[in-house]
Amino acid sequence: MSSSAAPAFKPFNLALIQLGQVGPDKAANLQHAREMILRAARGDGGAKPKADLVVLPECFNSPYGHVHFPVYAETIAFVPGRPYDVAASASKSVKMLSAAAREAGVWLVGGSIPERDTTDSKLYNTATVYSPQGDLVAIHRKVHLFDIDIPGKITFKESETLTGGKTINCFDTDFARVGLGICYDVRFPELAMINARRGCQVLIYPGAFNLTTGPLHWELLQRARAIDQQVYFSMCSPARDMTAGYHAWGHSMVVDPMGKVIAEAGHEEDIVYAHIDPQTFHDARAGIPVTTQRRFDVYADVSA
Ligand SMILES: NC(=O)CC(=O)C(=O)O
After folding, report:
1. Please, are residues 200 and 177 in contact by the beta-carbon 8 Å criterion?
2. Which keywords, in A-to-Z order, does the entry hold (predicted)?
3. What is the pLDDT of residue 303?
4. Ligand 1 touching residue 53 (CB < 6 A)
């Protein structure tokens, strides 16, 4: 987590890969993700502007489900602030993502993958981030585990095999400070607030809502976080696959700091592009100055 001043917010192009074909064959998942990263970075062969920052969805290299996490888990052993040797990494996913970011020359939020910690063998749902040089610059372990039980609809218990992360994470690019979360983390405004109060102008959460919670909450939560923190907020989902064990909602989305949805996918494989304009961010904060109207004399500052 950076404690320095955030970089000046500059315009940039964001591309979300709503990845399809995520099946049991990890090598095939990685190969397909790589092709889509290169395609997204190049603006779909020139049809769209080239992307500066590309995002993959939650659990892009493995089927989504607690039984799969131990089988697909990879060790990463990233220590913030220390140089990371991608070539020596045991993670095939890290190697692919690093090479793809470097080849495409883009910042890359590499969705999330099941991760096994090298010291205690605990499993995490972990996002990794790469610079255009292919350096692994940040990770985020999903803090809030997706444990829900809606009778007759959906029961899911990530905590059967996963442990929740303990840190709040962001990274600096040459155009913005970007805060990270993963899926269920969006339901906890504190995480978004802390990253926003630490200077993030953009919050990105790989995610995979489902056919029960997606229609009601996916857009609402993103617009809520965008408005209450006055930031760009974006979630990137896998495409829906009704043959898979988990049916993702899709609808990868980008919301501006006024709460307007500026880009949205359907439920099939797609790449969604959005131009991120800092003026909207500055106008939102100038016009509705909640960032300077907080009453920490009345309630606690959770970001302190
Ligand atoms: N999959 C998740 O982590 C969260 C989700 O689907 C929801 O909150 O709903």
Report:
1. yes
2. Hydrolase
3. 80
4. no
pTM of the model: 0.97
List domains and CATH numbers for the chain: 12-289 (3.60.110.10)
Which of 22, 68, 156 has most ligand 1 atoms within 8 Å of its beta carbon, as the pocket-test mutant? 156
| Torsions phi, psi for 13 (to 5 deg) | -110, 130
Q: Which residues have a Cβ under 8 Å from the Cβ of 27 and sit 6 or more positions away?
A: 92
pLDDT at 45: 83
Percent of the chain residues topping a pLDDT of 90:
95
- Residue 259: per-residue pLDDT: 98
CA 128 – CA 28 distance, rounded (Å) = 19
pLDDT for res 211: 98
**Which ranges of the chain have pLDDT less than 50?**
1
84 lines ligand 1 (CB under 6 A): no
d(CA 146, CA 208): 10
Enumerate the active-site residues: 58, 142, 183
Q: From the CB of 125, is ligand 1 less than 6 Å away?
A: no
Instruction: Note the pLDDT tens digit of each residue in 229-271.
Output: 999 999 999 999 999 999 999 999 999 999 999 999 999 999 9
Q: Return d(Cα 112, Cα 185) in angstroms, integer.
A: 13
Whether ligand 1 lies within 6 angstroms of the CB of 64 is answered as no
ipTM greater than cut 0.90: yes
147 Cα: distance to centroid of ligand 1 (angstroms): 8
Number of other CB atoms surrounding residue 83 within 10 Å: 8
The three state secondary structure string of 222-265 is HHHHHHHHCCEEEEECCCCCCCCCCCECCCCEEECCCCCEEEEC
